TrEMBL record:
Belongs to the D-isomer specific 2-hydroxyacid dehydrogenase family. One of its GO terms (molecular function) is phosphoglycerate dehydrogenase activity. Catalyzes the reversible oxidation of 3-phospho-D-glycerate to 3-phosphonooxypyruvate, the first step of the phosphorylated L-serine biosynthesis pathway. Also catalyzes the reversible oxidation of 2-hydroxyglutarate to 2-oxoglutarate. Keywords: NAD, Oxidoreductase. The gene is serA. Pathway: Amino-acid biosynthesis; L-serine biosynthesis; L-serine from 3-phospho-D-glycerate: step 1/3. It is an enzyme of class 1 (oxidoreductase). Its EC number is 1.1.1.399, 1.1.1.95. It catalyses: (R)-2-hydroxyglutarate + NAD(+) = 2-oxoglutarate + NADH + H(+); (2R)-3-phosphoglycerate + NAD(+) = 3-phosphooxypyruvate + NADH + H(+). It comes from the Bacteria. This is D-3-phosphoglycerate dehydrogenase.
């Protein structure tokens, strides 16, 4: 009997992959063979020696002490691409919310008072404040061309945007596949210098911390929009706020709550919703369950 401990709510579609005859799956379990989790941070958790594998039902693995697990020979599986569509759709939503001033306009519309006639007079006045801009012909810089970044890039191209991509880990084969649709930049600076929007799809680590900072924001086109649906800390929030206040940035869409950002009129913060659709949760759980099963039953390692 294999024992799987779920540390977060995992979609039932994934759990159904474990037959009851051979698996015990529970949130509280003694000496589990594997952990299955979403975003819970494991850095300060005492992971029992019985754990042979960890499955992260998502793309990023920065909530797991990878080095410690590698030293123990414990593979950590993730679910690359399984939530790419969900993130892509929210990036598009973010771009449109930003360039059409939707949140500010909605707030304003809720506060219009009076009878229908006076409201419609006021509407004529206030709508002037919310004139936005359109996507076709604008350039989207995509930092990180894994499953999510590539899917965002293809969507943007289909919407008539120019797309410039940068990925330090891009293989020649992948660059060749992408070359017809995406202009590739050799550096982040080169990408930013062309971008009206920049969207980030790289993991958080020492190399990507503060990747988007004051110096780099200043190289972007005026009135640019930054979207961070990856990890907090890749964009320097203080620098972003300064650039917003200076009129350099148009908007900053950030998939993380933040005291510094939450009241800024040109910032939209979200509670890390990029991958939060039923479909993405199901896809991730199924992919991780398949990998854990294949490892426990056959010793196979995929996406580790
Ligand atoms: C991811 O890394 O794919 C996301 O953080 C997933 C999530 O929100 O659980």
């Amino acid at each position: 009997m294999y024992k799987i401990q779920t540390l977060n709510n995992i979609s039932v579609k994934g759990l159904e992959k474990f037959p009851r005859e051979t698996y015990e799956v529970a949130s509280e379990i003694q000496n589990p063979d594997a952990y299955m989790l979403r975003s819970l941070k494991l850095h300060n958790v005492d992971i029992p020696e019985s754990v042979l594998a960890i499955g992260r039902a998502g793309a990023g693995v920065n909530n797991i002490p990878i080095e410690k697990m590698s030293a123990r020979g414990v593979p950590v599986f993730n679910a690359p691409g399984a939530n790419a569509n969900a993130v892509k759709e929210l990036v598009l939503t973010g771009m449109l919310l930003g360039c059409r001033n939707i949140c500010q306009a909605w707030e304003c519309a809720k506060n219009l008072t009076g009878d229908d006639e006076s409201i419609s007079k006021e509407v004529e006045q206030v709508k002037k404040k919310f004139v936005g801009f359109e996507l076709p012909g604008r350039t989207l810089g995509v930092i990180g061309l894994g499953a999510i970044g590539t899917s965002v890039a293809n969507m943007a191209r289909d919407l008539g945007m120019n797309v410039v991509g940068y990925d330090p880990a891009l293989t020649v084969e992948r660059a060749w596949q992408l070359s017809s649709s995406i202009e590739s930049a050799n550096t982040v600076d080169e990408l930013l210098a062309k971008s009206d929007f920049v969207t980030i799809h790289v993991p958080f680590n020492e190399g990507t911390k503060n990747l988007i900072n004051a110096r780099r924001i200043n190289t972007m086109n005026d009135n640019a929009i930054i979207l961070n649906f990856s990890r907090n800390g890749i964009v320097n929030d203080e620098d972003a706020v300064e650039a917003l206040n200076a009129g350099k940035l148009y908007s900053y869409i950030c998939d993380f709550p933040s005291n510094l950002l939450k009241d800024h009129p040109r910032v939209i913060t979200l509670p890390h919703l990029g991958a939060s659709t039923g479909e993405a949760e199901e896809n991730c759980a199924i992919m991780i369950a398949d990998q854990l099963k294949d490892f426990l039953e056959n010793g196979n390692i995929k996406n580790s």
